[in-house]
Amino acid sequence: MTISTNGASAAEPAPALKFLIYGRTGWIGGLLGKLCTAQGIPYAYGAGRLEHRAQLEADVDEVKPTHVFNAAGVTGRPNVDWCETHKVETIRANVCGTLTLADVCRGRGLVLINYATGCIFEYDAEHTLGSGVGFKEEDTPNFVGSFYSKTKAMVEELLKNYENVCTLRVRMPISSDLSNPRNFITKITRYDKVVDIPNSMTILDELLPISIEMAKRNLTGIWNFTNPGVVSHNEILEMYRDYIDPSFSWKNFNLEEQAKVFSKEYSEIYLNQFLANDIFVLAHAEDPYASASPNHDVDDRSICTKDHRVKLRMGSDGRAQITTNWYDLVKDAHMSVGEMAVFEFDRDDDDAFFIMLASNVKMGGPVKA
């Protein structure tokens, strides 16, 4: 394996460029393709999944790229809270997948431009709010407030061992396309309230072309891929009001209030995405606590028997939990041994979540409830 990193010699002839890009359906991946087209650089999008080595190797063999760009990964929909309830999927993409791609590229002598995140730091005693002291490339990530950030910090540390990888820490990306929901400007204009904190930000219109230039020069290592200085949420919203929508207004809240809202949003995301499907409960003779998938037994046994509804409450980790065990749930549904009940999720006019008994069937055929 031969690989030139951190700046090819000026005496070396520049090879004909061809890029292999991962993240076709993503925001950055899509913009990269447009930039390559504008610059006349041949490129192809990878068809393989990051966690499948054989698929990545097949992509490289077919495309025969000079450089590989990774703009793929899991960020979560509608936001990173999704990662809290899909930890294995997040690890598979953000850690296993990224490492596999880096390893494949290293084996083929290819530089990998990896679009990472700067959301792995928070203000601390050495980097206080308003001090102007920022984090450097060699600083160790100190933010572990989300599982998404944990995986990103984890893979960044491991990628330090790959001399062929260029890690670009993207932070709160902004572009001129205000119609894109991933645009940080667009995103915060849709919030009911925002926290006004200065942050480093990445203006993609300016910096994505630079990442292509960095690839041409075979630069590697960790880079804080942000524009100079910091911008606060209020400053962005003020400019949005002044230049885009004069009628726009917003409200601020503090970090404590934000934490409460995020906890509620996390609970709603958990219900809407993880518990969106019907749940099947089967009554077993040998197990009075009927098996269920998923199973969220808690100590609170209060139950609302009207319409066979079971209230949910928020647990200490922010997840929505059933406020009765499955035994009471099955008993209230008048289930006998061998019968299976189907429960679905809904919410009432007060926005409280409920589980509704949708049907009651017996193994091998339906029975009356």
Give a verbal description of the structure.
This protein has 369 residues and is an alpha/beta fold. The chain contains nine helices and 17 strands. Strands 11, 12, 13, 14, 15, 16 and 17 form a seven-stranded antiparallel beta sheet that branches. Strands 2-1-3-4-5-9 form a six-stranded parallel beta sheet, sandwiched between helices. Helix 3 links the parallel strand 3 (67-70) and strand 4. Helix 2 crosses helix 3. It starts with 18 loop residues before the first strand and ends with a strand.
Write out key terms for the chains shown.
6-stranded parallel β-sheet, 369 residues, 19% strand, 7-stranded antiparallel β-sheet, alpha/beta, 9 helices
